[in-house]
Amino acid sequence: MTEYAAPHTAAQGRGAGPDGGEPRPDAWSRPASTRAREARSDRAYRRGAGLGTEYGLDHESAGREQGWGTSSPSPRSRARGRPGSVERALSLLLLAAAAAALVAAAAILLPPALRITRYDVEGSARMSREEVLSAALIHDNEYFFSVDPQRIRSNLLAEPRIADAEVSRVFPSSLRIRIAERQPVASVLVDGADGQRVACIDSTASAFALADPVADAATLGRLPVISGIRFEGFRPGTKLPDELGPLFASLAAIEQSEPALLAAFSEIRIDKPRFGAPELLLYPVTYRIPVRAAADLNASTLRSIILVLDVLASRGLGSTVEEIDFRTGTVVYRSKEGQSG
Q1: Higher pLDDT, 273 or 10
Q2: Integer Cα distance of 256 and 252 in angstroms
């Protein structure tokens, strides 16, 4: 008797899994519609996996490209992922507000607290401290941050007695003023409302001030008087002609190196010929013989003049010589009888 046996291939095909693997135990226990959905899902999964492999995406990203898989996090979930970001922003905002408040408070409170209360004046010998501060034109209420040192320096330089000035602030409430006064190298007589006065001339040929008969007596006593110059409406700070600048520069050099040489001459007269450079006529203190010289004096010329005067006096010729000429390399003297030697 022949037994009926179902073919193994058919049974295996009906019970095999979607990928041809082991048969599902319940492969034929589910409805056909369910098995169809599973097959479609498997095919979509395989397409997503292939897409991710081709473009370098993972399975989850590939699923999102196909419209399925995990979704992107919401803004609320991202905010929960950064719990300190809001706090940091608020802290920075509070710090900026506090800094602005401090700056505003400093702008209001610091200027009155940093008022200039001390003025240090250096370098003044002929001028008093009050005269320097008056020349500086300092306001009653000067503050450390608002005071202008350059403005004060300009005011000081407008004073004829001051040659140079330096102004600096010293924290928290001081102002340092350092000046260089003009130094006289000669004097000149000028006409004033109350008669003739003595004015001081410095190395730049500036008649910078009227001399004080008491305070300047010792200084002016050793300096020569310049004659041959006439001032009309003299004012301190009047500049002499530029062609006389070298003369006063040379007098300053002699005064600094050998002041005794200048003290040997009481007067220097400036003669301006019709043509040519100015000439000088020097009057010695000890001898009554004037000496004519060029305007570019130096210490060597003065020493030679003094030596010639000493020789003439030792030979008893001092009373017979009317003038000595040092304008050329050869010393020439003119006697009172009209003879030259």
Answers
A1: 273
A2: 6
Cα 300 from chain centroid (whole Å): 43
Is 252 or 41 the better-scoring residue by pLDDT? 252
Cα-trace Rg, the chain: 54
Sign of CA dihedral 334, 335, 338, 341: negative
What distance in Å separates the CA atoms of residue 233 and residue 136, rounded to the nearest whole number?
26
What is the rounded distance in angstroms from the CA atom of residue 283 to the CA atom of residue 308? 14
Q: Distance (Å, rounded) from C-alpha 150 to C-alpha 152? A: 5
Top pLDDT among 85 and 267 is at 267
Q: Sort 132 into a burial class: Cβ within 10 Å, 0-12 / 13-18 / 19+.
A: buried
Question: Measured between alpha carbons, how far is residue 297 from residues 165, 265, 281 in Å?
Answer: 30, 13, 11
C-alpha span between 74 and 55 (Å, rounded): 26
pLDDT at 44 (0 to 100): 54
The residue whose two tokens read 């602030």 is 169
Q: What are phi and psi of 195, to 5 degrees?
A: 105, -165
* Tokens read off for 152: 């004060």
- CA–CA distances in Å: residue 309 to residues 42, 174, 296, 314: 135, 57, 20, 9
Per residue in 227-251, is it b (16+ CB within 10 Å) or e — as a string? eebeeeebeeebebeeebbebbbbb
Name the residue with tokens 């010589």: 321
The alpha carbon of residue 192 and the mean position of all alpha carbons in its chain are separated, in whole angstroms, by 43
Residue-level pLDDT at 253: 96
Give pLDDT, residue 192: 77
User: Which of helix, strand or coil describes residue 76?
Assistant: helix
Write down the mean pLDDT value for the chain. Answer: 80
Strand, coil or helix: 263: helix
